[in-house]
Design a protein that fits this description.
Helices cover 74% and strands 0% of the residues. It is mainly α.
């Protein structure tokens, strides 16, 4: 009993150190975004800008089409999240409820597919999209994002489906509900936390993705926000640090907003107490 306060203090200290470690890049980015050029080149940088300015934000919007690029990223990310969830939910249900050899093989393939690097699959993807005439289009990029996020989304949802008590589905079957009706009316509402977490994962992955967008999109009007951010780096590799920090700070906000909106669904235990023991 005497060691409990010390252990709890150690846990809180470790948690605080981890939070500081996670927050440091974001806070430094925020500080840099509001610093004037003279402070950015100072040999003694400070956390809080001495003379905060919005000039970096104005310059970022004047130099690059950030709003249009953000809209492209939003369309691709939302499309990928919605389609991935719609496909993964029934697939996860089948894999969780029918534990056959084929389902186990599919689960193993899902895990193994996450080890494939981007470079290994970009050429086959490029050839397939070229045949489908989807190169340099947001539709083609969204399709790639769905394919890339679907295995992990499926793996996540299988675990959530297995946590749903089978007794609820058996009760629905007794009342005359079929498999599809049971999935839509009984299982899917209880999967809300898992669906929210999966959608958040797919959205953030697509929103932050750079490599596929760089290779598949050539027209400036189709480029996503991560690709446009590289335009703040000159031909000689010198970055326009102030506008780049301002644009990068704005690029992180949608992910934070989506997480804030879905965090209750993610952390809520909607199936707790659904079946009495």
């Amino acid at each position: 009993m005497r060691t409990r306060p010390a252990a709890r203090a150690g846990q809180y200290t470790a948690l605080l150190a981890y939070l500081i470690f996670l927050a440091f890049p974001f806070l430094w980015l925020l500080s840099t975004a509001f610093k004037p050029p003279r402070e950015l080149g100072s040999l003694h940088p400070t956390w809080i800008p001495r003379h905060p300015t919005l000039a970096n934000f104005r310059q970022a919007f004047d130099e690059q089409p950030l709003l249009h690029a953000a809209l492209n990223s939003l369309l691709a990310a939302l499309g990928a999240a919605v389609i991935a969830v719609l496909i993964a939910t029934p697939m996860a249900y089948v894999m969780a409820r029918h534990r056959t050899r084929l389902a186990r093989a599919a689960s193993g393939w899902v895990v193994v597919s996450q080890a494939f690097p981007f470079v290994l699959i970009i050429i086959p993807l490029f050839l397939v999209l070229k045949r489908l005439r989807l190169i340099d289009s947001l539709a083609g990029l969204t399709l790639v994002y769905v394919v890339w996020s679907l295995p992990f989304a499926l793996w996540m949802l299988v675990g959530y489906v297995r946590a749903v008590p089978v007794e609820l589905e058996e009760a629905a079957a007794v009342d005359g509900a079929g498999r599809l009706r049971t999935l839509i009316s009984v299982t899917a509402p209880l999967l809300a936390p898992g669906i929210a977490a999966t959608a958040l994962f797919a959205f953030v992955t697509a929103w932050n993705e750079f490599f596929f967008a760089l290779v598949l999109l050539k027209t400036p009007g189709n480029q996503t926000l991560p690709v446009v951010l590289t335009h703040f780096i000159g031909a000689e590799g010198v970055a326009d640090l102030g506008p780049l920090a301002a644009a990068a700070f704005l690029a992180t906000l949608p992910s934070l907003v989506v997480f804030a909106l879905l965090q209750r669904r993610i952390t809520g235990g909607l199936i707790a107490g659904a079946v009495k023991s």
